[in-house]
Automatic annotation (TrEMBL):
This is Triosephosphate isomerase. CDD domains: TIM. Gene3D superfamilies: Aldolase class I (3.20.20.70). Its main location: cytoplasm. Homodimer. GO terms for cellular component: cytosol. Substrate binds at residues 9-11, 175, 215, 236-237.
Length: 253
């Protein structure tokens, strides 16, 4: 059984006090996370240690970085290394979010280097991919996300690929209020799993959690998560509202 995951991406939002209050509120309302489920909070870098302290030793609840660099140390002012993450007890990171690709020019090849350094250091990558509205309207979304998979992940071994969480996020549905229908989301998530199966075999592909990210809300999470190839969500705006994110956690299969 694949792990079902509710992942929060706070992006560049909240002060430290607001973040601490939000996290404490969510954890007080969702006091335990069932076996086979995971809840992950991708918080701004200055808050990683404080968030980790609030989570403490709760089972199946994790703190994640929103980004890492492809080197473990060096003269890279402003960047965040896996060694820094591990030093504060954080073992997850987003890699390749569409905003990193769009605003900071991160290529598939560069993201492959980030994936490699994360896995080599025991940090779980939450690898993001997805298409723009233009690509979706042209009907080329499958080929586009296949290339993202191939160029960033298909160099990995069978064992390594099972340690990656994949998050499909249609760029046209991020923060726009538009959401892919559950059928649209399932169609491309199944395509991703089938493409993984073509490379690594069905048994391996069936071990990989593939999340949906694109205006996931409390009122649509249950329908989205009921699809056979959607293993939870990567949640933006709704993760900043305690009651909404708790409802999304509760919607996990």
């Amino acid at each position: 059984m694949r792990t079902q995951i509710a992942a929060a991406n706070w992006k560049m939002n909240l002060t430290l006090q607001q973040g601490q209050d939000l996290l404490s509120d969510i954890l007080s309302k969702s006091t335990s996370v069932r076996e086979g489920h995971a809840v992950i909070f991708a918080v701004p870098a200055p808050y990683l240690q404080a968030a980790k302290e609030i989570v403490g030793d709760r089972e199946n609840v994790y703190i994640s970085a929103q980004n890492i660099y492809s080197k473990t140390s060096g003269a890279y002012t402003g960047e965040l290394s896996v060694e820094m993450l591990k030093s504060v007890g954080v073992y997850h990171t987003l890699i390749g979010h569409s905003e990193r690709r769009e605003y900071f020019g991160e290529s598939n090849q560069f993201l492959a280097e980030k994936v490699d350094v994360a896995l080599a250091n025991g940090v779980t990558p939450i690898f993001c991919l997805g298409e723009s509205l233009e690509i979706r309207e042209s009907g080329n979304q499958n080929a586009f996300v296949a290339t993202q998979l191939e160029e960033s992940l298909f160099h990995l071994s069978e064992d390594e690929i099972t340690k990656v969480i994949i998050a499909y996020e249609p760029i046209w549905a991020i923060g726009t209020g538009k959401t892919a229908s559950s059928e649209q989301a399932e169609e491309i998530q199944k395509f991703l799993r089938d493409h993984l199966a073509g490379k690594y075999g069905q048994e391996t592909a069936d071990k990989i959690s593939i999340l949906y990210g694109g205006s996931v809300k409390a009122n649509n999470a249950k329908e989205l998560f009921s699809q056979p190839d959607i293993d939870g969500g990567l949640v933006g705006g709704a993760s900043l509202v305690a009651d909404d994110f708790v409802a999304i956690i509760d919607a996990l299969n």
